[in-house]
Design a protein that fits this description.
0% of the residues lie in helices and 46% in strands. It is built from no helices and twelve strands.
Length: 131
């Protein structure tokens, strides 16, 4: 069994997840966006459709299209569309780089613990971590 594997221009295996995992970032995705896996291109993330399963948050994006995607295994602060639910909830992409909260256990949602919320400049942010 190989210790690492090359997918596109990125070698995987042994990356430190707390620093984010290197992925190909879709041109429409911005730093801070919640992204989903592209179903066409391996190792690529996109903003995804409304209700899509989120895989992480874009931490960095380089000119070559590569960047770091941080998982929800560490606390993430993300932009929220819709109502706030504190405690355990389901997290889904909202299709525009933000997230929405749904009932825990909803299909295509990631179960997270919503730690808190804050409104800054009319934008609602939530702090979440994988539950």
């Amino acid at each position: 069994m190989p210790k690492n594997i090359k997918i596109g221009n990125v070698r995987h295996g042994g990356q430190e997840y707390r620093n984010g995992i290197t992925k190909v970032i879709d041109a429409a995705a911005l730093v801070g966006d919640v992204v989903t896996s592209d179903t066409v291109t391996a190792n690529k993330v996109v903003r995804g459709a409304n209700g899509a399963y989120p895989v992480g948050v874009v931490n960095t994006k380089e000119q070559d299209g590569l960047g770091a995607v941080q998982s929800f295994d560490v606390v993430q602060v993300v932009r929220l569309t819709g109502a706030v639910t504190l405690g355990v909830a389901g997290l889904q992409g909202a299709g525009d780089g933000t997230v929405k909260l749904v009932a825990a256990g909803t299909a295509s949602s990631l179960t997270v613990d919503v730690l808190g919320t804050q409104v800054v400049g009319g934008i609602t942010y939530v702090a979440v971590v994988r539950a």
